[in-house]
Design goal:
- The complex is a heterodimer of chains A (153) and B (357).
- Chain A is built from four helices and five strands, in the order H-E-H-E-E-H-E-E-H.
- Chain A has a three-stranded antiparallel β-sheet with strand order 2-3-5.
- Chain A has 153 residues and is α+β, with helices and mostly antiparallel strands.
- Chain A is elongated.
- Chain B contains twelve helices and seven strands.
- In chain B, the strands form three sheets. Chain B has a three-stranded antiparallel β-sheet with strand order 5-6-7, with no helix packed on it.
- Chain B is globular.
- The chains are: A alpha+beta (153), B mainly alpha (357).
- At the A-B interface, helix 1 of A face helix 1 of B.
Amino acid sequence: MKLFWEAIKGLGITARHLIVNLWKFSLYYVGLSRDKGVVTVEYPEERRETFPRVRLRHRLLRREDGRLRCVACFMCATACPAECIYIEAEEDPDHPLEKRPRQFLIDLGKCAYCGFCVEACPEDAIRMDVHIPELAEYERDNLIYDIEKLTKK
Amino acid sequence: MVWVIIKAVVIFTWALITVLYITLLERKESALIQDRIGANRAEVLGLRLNGLFQPFADALKMFFKEDYIPPFVDRPFYLAAPILSLVFALVPIGAIPLADKLSIDGREFSISVIGSNVGLVLILSLLSLGIYGVVLGGYGSRNKYGLVGGMRATAQVISYEVALGLSLVGVLLVYPSLNLNEIVYMQNRYVLGGWVPLWGIILQPLAAILFLIAGMAENKRVPFDLPEGESEIIGYFLEYSGMKFGMFFVADFVEVLLLAALFTTFFLGGYNPPYLFQDGFHFPWGGALLLSPVWIRVIQFITFNIKLWIVVWFLLLVRWTYPRYRFDQLMDLGWKNLIPLSILNIIITAGIMAVIK
């Protein structure tokens, strides 16, 4: 008999969840309330806020005059445990004392997203603050990002 | 003859659409119980309506899946099993009255496909035949797991059928007729100054609970879903794929509809809303609302649907609340609890009836 009562109580719990969620979601659905009541995040349309320190895709920063901050010092490539950064340096024709990268490739297929490159950079030229988690590609070669793709926010 | 075919087409279309939306209700209700939203992506012409078209997408997907027949199966049995399963679940729905009889030009139309005088017996016998689908599915698959699953299902369904039948005996003692229409008529009486309807759930509460539990076990649904147990216990439809599996699946939901319809008919006053009589509403607080016969049938059909959905809602709530029984506990519940209780119910009912007479 006690078990029977417990079974009824169980039904009460599920029924309460059902009715409370139904009420809250109905109000949300017709636009009367901001509280959805359910935990679902409907991903492509709405997404969860990423944390400020999350490490995702890299970004190469530019100076105020539009040149890349990167001076091709190879610190990031040296620090990288996955060896996924490939840099080719050249002289900057406008500023004869400086170097700049002719090519700067990051193979995101190899990258471990450890953030050591960001720590190593003396010029604050590379950051991992692009909060976009969608990096999937059909071809592995598409995961090798060049300067053009890396400077995009 | 033509009328029977038209009625069959209309009523079975109604039944199948209801079944489709029971699947949707199941998905939505389970989602809300678990603090989720549930399927809401199906889209027709840019209209989503929070998933209202999902059942049709499901059905389409089921139709276009590859239908693979393993080379080792016993083909006749293997092919017959899903059809038997679905047919024997669907046909009894034809015997349930969805509204009162309608007489046009002196001819009587029953609003059910089979306007039988022995509807109850017909339904019970067709329900028992449904086991053949399960058994042949397990046997025809030529797979030991499938066979064991089929045997387990058979043991369960047969033992709970006893409790199901015995719980209905109490109802038959109170409403002495096998004609479902007359059982509904006899529930449309009122006591306590005309306020309380003499529905089955008021006269036979124990039988109602027993019928519901036994019916759920008969349906092979959670908490009694040992024969199916999609992911954990291998069931009788192990070797089925595509639309053949779909037919077993639909048969499952048709049985939910059937159980809900039977519960409505026997225990919730059938198609009659409270205080509706042959010529319209007569309220106990005085006052009446007279309606034409056709309107009364329409109201009765709507009422039947509302009651049906309430029962379906409750069945799904039960399904998403309880964990699964162990097999020996299942047998204990059936043979040691439900059957003695239903016999007790018969004895008490018969005693009270004898005293009243």
